[in-house]
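Handout, section B. The chain below has 121 residues.
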Amino acid sequence: QVHLVESGGGLVQPGGSLRLSCAASGSIFRIYVMGWYRQAPGKQRELVATITSGGGSVYADSVEGRFTISRGNAENTAYLQMNSLEPEDTAVYYCNAVASGPLDRTPRTYWGQGTQVTVSA
């Protein structure tokens, strides 16, 4: 019912910045949480940051102080501003949302297809 599309990934040098975007569409009653996860080759998918409908956010220790998650004006978008990027940040970044539909209104988890972020000199 909910479709998530990420954009903004690419190749950046160490110390550089990127801004990722996630847009949610489909049959949506309410989005409770949006977030970003990442998965590097050979590693498990891990939390990067999440933000609730009330604006509260949490970050992984590895990105605290460097990344900032935010919500768009339409409340169906999320952004991840990534500064001071390091080679260790190289991964596929996935948008995540917890949302309910207009019929049963049961919260469910949705995932985007991911966008590649590569940090290399």
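Note. The chain has a mean pLDDT of 96. Compare this with the example in section A.
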